[in-house]
Amino acid sequence: MPELDDTDRRLLRLLQQDATLSTQALAEAAGLSSSPAWRRVRRLMDEGVIARQVALVPPAKAGMHAMAYVQVSLLQHTEDTLARFDRFVQTEDQVVECATITGSSDYLLKIVAPDPEGLEHFIMRRLLALGIVRGTQTNFVLRQTKYSTAMPV
């Protein structure tokens, strides 16, 4: 894990708010000149502290008006079953997050769809149709009160 000093943290906070800042604007906001700011950002990227820069699209703006968290329990925990499930979530665009979890379920998925019927269709016709899922528990999101991708640095 690379050591982050106060300047690195300041740059990371600024970039997490707006990754489209020019090097000059970023440098000014961080109290640096352009060259040192650029070198620090490049180092943070090379060290993997900044994994990638993306555009965040609100789900509703992409026509995704339904969201759910789905806990998934698998029938078996063989290497083949786990690999098959992992391949499934990696290739399904409607699965926007997947985590292996502790407790009575094996995974927690965050799924988006155009509407509640689309969520039901995905769960019934895609997820359960895999034949490797023992059961699911679905929690529909009624309203999202906070969403952030920013890490507290």
From TrEMBL:
It comes from the Bacteria. The keyword DNA-binding applies. GO terms for cellular component: cytosol. One of its GO terms (biological process) is regulation of DNA-templated transcription. Residues 4-65 form the HTH asnC-type domain. InterPro entries: ArsR-like_HTH, AsnC-type_HTH_dom, Dimeric_a/b-barrel, Tscrpt_reg_AsnC-like, Tscrpt_reg_AsnC/Lrp_C, WH-like_DNA-bd_sf, WH_DNA-bd_sf. GO terms for molecular function: sequence-specific DNA binding. The keyword GTP-binding does not apply. Pfam families: AsnC_trans_reg, HTH_24. Signal peptide: none annotated. CDD domains: HTH_ARSR. SUPFAM superfamilies: Dimeric alpha+beta barrel, Winged helix' DNA-binding domain. Keywords: DNA-binding, Transcription, Transcription regulation. This is Lrp/AsnC family transcriptional regulator. It comes from Paracoccus siganidrum.
